């Protein structure tokens, strides 16, 4: 999942004239058919979490709902998301329509003024961007414009791909409620918001807020995490950031961090994988090599499905002499085959960290971040602390992208299945060894502060 913040930040520096492209009904239907066919051909196992009959029934309902002669990019994207999300696979998705959102921003668009977090089955105010200060953080939202929050979510859910409701809500929090409410319901200038305060339901009349000045400029993304190292008492606190980007620069950061950590000889190390969008095992394994006590792998088994679409993607984007990518081209379309990764070696003893290690996770530990936490847990390299991850550590992933031929809408799809180190394929996230709830409602850091208190109490 791309960090939407990186898209929005361009709004501050770019001034363009937009005219949203429209697509004829026939073009949309052709791409709809192509979407279903390509998913069946290229996805590792499209019908893992839903029957083919149910998937096709949903497809036909969406197809028959197209009655207009032409549709906007936003309408088309929402339609296609409603098809692909039915597969219930978080790595098989159509991203949030950032281009349409950017155009809406430049047309002085406005948004719903409350950011929500979803905890214990309730929609709770996380940020209040309205002019009404009496709506406190943590207040439960019951309905919006006379629609119960369950009905509101039912309209938003088809826009989000995820294996289960817990993960769907985590991805909703990541993309943010105001953005997805706009996508699902369109722009609205006024809102009647019913909330529960001290067991009493109260109604508030709120006005929409400016997308750029009142929302994007004032907030920060849940996942906008910079790499950092700091020392708190006798504990080193490392934020490695997402496992992506410039690999050489990343490795230099990890190298220098562990030089500093070992120089200070601190007895405890905390590695923070919360709010982490994941990335590539080449990054995560390098970090793990500094705390590993023996050779290791990032998964116990990896299998991949090849297809004409994947082969085309590989030829355009990768070095086909690399054994991994070469294997894609050597197998017949539609075949599923195992690919074994070599063991990764720990750093030399004089470079490794040998103290007590803790790894922080939460529902926003995505993809490779969840896989890495499970890897560390299964090898017993560290204690996992926090709340269950939204993503499964054994999952359909190894994502790549292609574009639909008529509309150009980007489709992301899972080509592989990853099995965690201990071999478990249970449909669950990484379960922490030490559970501490991560409330996304305030600026407090319950997980980090709770762990530091526990560390202090044991020394």
From TrEMBL:
Pfam families found in the cross-reference section: Peptidase_S41
Record's protein name: Peptidase S41
Taxonomic lineage of the native organism: Bacteria, Pseudomonadati, Bacteroidota, Flavobacteriia, Flavobacteriales
Any one GO BP annotation for this protein: proteolysis
Positions in coiled-coil regions: none
Xref: SUPFAM superfamilies: ClpP/crotonase (SSF52096)
GO molecular function terms listed in the Swiss-Prot or TrEMBL record: endopeptidase activity; serine-type peptidase activity
Organism per entry: Aestuariibaculum marinum
Tail specific protease domain segment(s): 249-435
PANTHER family linked to this entry: CARBOXYL-TERMINAL-PROCESSING PEPTIDASE 3, CHLOROPLASTIC (PTHR32060:SF22), TAIL-SPECIFIC PROTEASE (PTHR32060)
């Amino acid at each position: 999942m791309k960090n939407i913040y990186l898209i929005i930040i361009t709004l501050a520096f770019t001034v363009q004239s937009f005219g949203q492209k429209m697509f004829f009904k026939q073009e949309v239907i052709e791409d709809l058919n192509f979407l279903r066919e390509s998913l069946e051909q290229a996805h590792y196992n499209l019908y893992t979490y839903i029957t083919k009959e149910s998937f096709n029934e949903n497809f036909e309902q969406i197809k028959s709902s197209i009655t207009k002669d032409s549709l906007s990019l936003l309408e088309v994207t929402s339609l296609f998301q409603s098809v692909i999300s039915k597969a219930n696979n978080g790595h098989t998705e159509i991203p949030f329509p950032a281009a349409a959102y950017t155009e809406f921003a430049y047309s002085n668009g406005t948004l719903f003024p409350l950011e929500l977090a979803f905890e214990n089955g309730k929609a709770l105010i996380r940020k209040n961007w309205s002019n009404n200060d009496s709506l406190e953080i943590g207040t439960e939202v019951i309905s919006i414009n006379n629609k119960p929050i369950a009905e509101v979510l039912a309209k938003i859910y088809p826009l989000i791909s995820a294996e289960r409701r817990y993960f769907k809500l985590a991805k909703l929090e990541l993309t943010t409620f105001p953005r997805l409410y706009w996508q699902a319901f369109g722009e609205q200038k006024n809102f009647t918001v019913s909330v529960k305060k001290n067991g009493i339901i109260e109604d508030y009349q709120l006005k929409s807020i400016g997308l750029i000045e009142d929302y994007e400029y004032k907030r920060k993304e849940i996942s906008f995490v910079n790499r950092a190292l700091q020392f708190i008492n006798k504990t080193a606190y490392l934020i490695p950031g997402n496992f992506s980007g410039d690999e050489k620069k990343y490795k230099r950061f990890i190298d220098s961090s562990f030089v500093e950590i070992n120089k200070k000889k601190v007895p405890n190390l905390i590695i923070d994988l919360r709010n982490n969008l994941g990335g590539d095992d080449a990054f995560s394994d390098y970090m793990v090599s500094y705390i590993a006590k023996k050779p290791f792998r990032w998964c116990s088994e990896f299998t991949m499905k090849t297809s004409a679409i994947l082969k085309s993607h590989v030829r355009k984007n990768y070095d086909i002499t690399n054994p991994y990518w070469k294997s894609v081209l050597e197998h017949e379309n539609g075949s599923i085959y195992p690919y074994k990764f070599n063991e990764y070696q720990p750093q030399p003893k004089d470079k490794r960290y040998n103290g007590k290690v803790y790894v922080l996770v939460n529902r926003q530990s995505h993809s490779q971040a969840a896989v890495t936490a499970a890897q560390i847990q299964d090898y017993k390299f560290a204690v996992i602390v926090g709340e269950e991850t939204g993503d499964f550590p054994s999952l359909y992933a190894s994502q790549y992208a292609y574009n639909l031929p008529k509309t150009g809408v980007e489709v992301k799809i899972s080509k592989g299945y990853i099995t965690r180190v201990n071999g478990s394929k249970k449909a669950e996230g990484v379960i922490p060894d030490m559970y501490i709830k991560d409330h996304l409602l305030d600026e407090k850091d319950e997980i980090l502060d709770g762990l530091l208190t526990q560390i202090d109490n044991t020394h």
